[in-house]
Amino acid sequence: MTICEPDEIIIHGTTSKGKVFRPSDWAERLCGILSSFNKDNRLSYHEWVQPVVMDKIRCVAIVPKLQEINPSMFRFLMDFAADNDLCVLTYRELLAEQGANAESVEVNTVIAAPETVSCPEPMPEQPPETLEEPESILREIAPHETAIAFAALSVLRPKLKDINSFVEQINKVQRMQGYRLLGVFERGTSNPVAVCGFRVETNLVSGNHLHIDDLVTLPQYRKHGYGTRLLTEIQRIASEQNIEEIHIDSSVGGERTTAHRIYFQHGFEIHAYHFVCKMDYQK
């Protein structure tokens, strides 16, 4: 048993229409995003984000201080609730709705943290409304026109400064390794407003899989669903080639919260830590 405080924020596992949210383990999987390894090398939930069961309904209890300490994660949790039409209220408000005592009350704790961390794919009852999309086309960017992808990719990769070096690296090195580029072009534009760079590779860890190296939409063209269109096309290509896995690396900064939400919506899960060792050579 555990204790919920009156001011704790509850993401209740029911929609605004009163239906129970699925999948059944959504709360554990959502909290798993903030889980970490304890001294026994076992995953444990964050002390401020816990899955709980209230009247046989799975919920997520959030300590309000999370909004100050980790605003990007708090925003992600709130966006998840909004995307899936889940009720969000304080524990005091929940008790008031149920006519219960507004003091701290024991609540059943959900099962222990899972062995792997993943997030449920959002499953809204009704397809979300999409913004009206300007007329555009999605097509592959051929080697002779690699330069047109520079503007978009330089937003994602600030280290890119020289377009000639960029074209040379893509065409003479990366394309030789199977790298391909997709672009979304709005009517009247010669350069893509959104770009995806990917490759099919094989290794001992994942076998034959598709890896997304780059995915970006120019800031002024965001919220038109272009990232979603590119991911959908990538999934179509993988399916066409009988590729069972698609991989993508993404930074953990707060500015990437929106991108992470799109990945989760397309069935991606957090699968591993990505370690980097920077060598400090003495000159």
Automatic annotation (TrEMBL):
Stretch forming the signal peptide: none
Span of domain N-acetyltransferase: 136-283
Any matching Pfam family: DUF3579
A Gene Ontology molecular function term of the record: acyltransferase activity, transferring groups other than amino-acyl groups
Cited PROSITE patterns: GNAT
Family matches, as InterPro entries: Acyl_CoA_acyltransferase, DUF3579, GNAT_dom
Alphabetized SUPFAM superfamilies for the sequence: Acyl-CoA N-acyltransferases (Nat)
Classification via Gene3D superfamilies: 3.40.630.30, Uncharacterised protein PF12112 family, DUF3579
Superkingdom: Bacteria
Name of this protein: N-acetyltransferase domain-containing protein
